[in-house]
Every structure is written in structure tokens, then in C-alpha cells.
Amino acid sequence: MKIFIVGSTGMVGRECKEVLEQDHEMICPGKDEVDVISWDVVIENLAEVAPDVIINCAGFTDMKACETEDFAVRKINVEGPRNLAQASARFGCKMVHLSCGHVFDGKKGMPQPYFEDDTPNPLSAYGKSKLESEIAVRSNSPNYIIIRSICLYGINGKNLVKSILAQAVRKKKEVLRIPEDQFGAPTWSYRLALQIKTLLEKGGRGTYHLSAGGYCSRFEFAKYLLDRLNIKTPVEPCKLKDLDDPFVMPVNCLLENRLSKKHGLNVMVDWKEDLDRFLDKFGKELIKEARRA
Ligand SMILES: NC(=O)c1ccc[n+]([C@@H]2O[C@H](COP(=O)([O-])OP(=O)(O)OC[C@H]3O[C@@H](n4cnc5c(N)ncnc54)[C@H](OP(=O)(O)O)[C@@H]3O)[C@@H](O)[C@H]2O)c1
Questions:
Q1: Residue 6 CB less than 6 A away from ligand 1
Q2: Does residue 169 lie in a domain region?
Q3: Which residues in the chain show pLDDT less than 50?
Q4: Within-domain flag for 234
Q5: How far is CA 193 from CA 105, 152, 196, 199, in A?
Q6: Angle at which helices 80-91 and 125-140 pack, to 10 degrees?
Q7: What does the pLDDT read at residue 244?
Q8: Can you give the pLDDT at residue 176?
Q9: Ligand 1 in contact with 31 (CB < 6 A)?
């Protein structure tokens, strides 16, 4: 397949590029070459490249800034996907779009997960923009895959693993407080890229929940991560409300990969299994990076 990715410098985009380029022809323009908010630029590039698939890994992903940067968020998270979806219809190619579990309000009782057909009700500006992006893709592209994932981490870009490590390294003996009342399945961006490859190669269509198996609280995750890397910074549980974030976080972020399992396409594994693999491979590099942060 000839695959055109936007957002290939980000955490998910880089993994997708590296995983897919093993078997497919990749075209990976930077933001300076293809800014998704420009319809003319999108159309011009896609007319020239004529890909089989467009993957949209571009996004305004800073949840805090989303609360105040309404104009930019709408442009990048809603108008960008709409442009790409309309272009996919015009050129007859498939569109893969990244959405997020934050389209749900997280009020389901634990440990009940969210299914693909549950009713969204986002709480944050980021979650609202992702829901609008889904609507833009569904209503404009006749052949799409929408992926809702959550709590992604990886070696590229900013993410939860890196921010916990940076705080832990900075605090040393001071106590690190992490919420015990938010739950999800931390998911390795590399595994997500493998899952996207499988869906593309097996002809997947529609809206998929794709997160790691099992679940934990954010506190359990941080504790496991620091113990595993032998970092001695003390960690104590706190509540989400103690964080003083400007946005509302869903409490229950559990996603059930029902559609991919139903079709025998699920390649996601338990969150601890992948976190162990990730830390075996990148643990030393992550600690060095945290010390420099
Ligand atoms: N991170 C998570 O936990 C998570 C969870 C679920 C879903 N998602 C979704 O997955 C997608 C990728 O997330 P990520 O964490 O990989 O994001 P990221 O690391 O912040 O990367 C975002 C990418 O978008 C590019 N970009 C921004 N504005 C653009 C524009 N106007 N035109 C073209 N490219 C633009 C950035 O380019 P520059 O680097 O040049 O700025 C970067 O390559 C997003 O849609 C996000 O909502 C993320």
C-alpha cells in the first residue's frame, strides 16, 4: 500500500511510520510541507501522491492548552480531520484517524469498560474536539477507521511515563503525589502502531477501541514504573481534584477492544507485559532523558 501520514513527527506518527515502512511505501510530510488546516495544501499533495491510505496522527494534544486555545484546537483537531476526510472521499482512499477515550465522561462504574457504541459525553475541551473530529471523519469519508486509544506512552514525544520520571528524578526524596482515583490501561504507542498495521492489512473499517489489556490506577502505574526502574522517590496516592488541573479528567478511562476482538484482529497485550518490554528496551535512555529535563 502507498500510505500518506500526517503528524509523523509525533509520538504515534513516528511509531506508525517505523512499523509500516517495513512492508509499505510511506510518504511522511512534515507540518511545514502539509499543514492539515489548509484545504488547498492537503488537496494539492494528495492529488500528487495518490495514496491508498491517509493516516492522521496530527493533533493539538496539550490538554491544558486546549482549554484556552479554542481557535487553534478547532483548526487542528476538527478542520484538519475534515479536510483529510473530504480529500479521502475525493481521491477514493481509506482514512485512518486517531481519536481518544476522552470522548467519554468516565462516569461508568469501575471496572466496566466503554464499548465502541457507548454514547460519548466529553468533559474537556480536548475531548469535545476529538468527538467533533470523529463526526467530521464519519460524515465525510466513505472508508474510514477511527481509533480511540488512551494513556499512550512511547520513546518519542511527551507522555505519562516521561512526565512521571521527570518529576520523580527532580523530587528525589520529596514525596510524589499521584491520583489513585483515575483508571486506564497504559498503552505502548509501538503496540498501537502494530495494531493499526494489522487493521489496515486485514481490511478493518469503522470505529475501534484500542487499548492495552487489564487496567490500573494512575498511582499503581507510577509505583510500578518507578519500582521497575529502581527509582527510590517516595510515591503517595492523592485524588484527581488535588492536581488542580484546569480541565476535567474522566475517572474511568477503560476501553474494551470489542470490535477488533470480534473480528479476530486484536494484537494488544496486557499493560504490564508491554510496559516491561518497553522498560527493558528503553529504561536507561528514559532515566538519562529525565535527568536532562
Ligand atoms: N498521547 C495520547 O495519550 C493519545 C491518546 C489517544 C489518542 N491520541 C491521539 O493520537 C494522535 C497523535 O497523538 P500524539 O500523542 O502522537 O501527538 P503529538 O506527539 O503531540 O504529535 C502531534 C503531531 O501533529 C503534528 N501537527 C500539529 N499540528 C499540525 C498541523 N496543523 N498540520 C500537520 N501536522 C500537525 C505535530 O507536528 P510538529 O511536531 O511539527 O508540531 C506532530 O507531528 C492525536 O490525534 C491524539 O489526539 C493521543
A1: yes
A2: no
A3: none
A4: no
A5: 26, 11, 5, 10
A6: 10
A7: 80
A8: 94
A9: yes
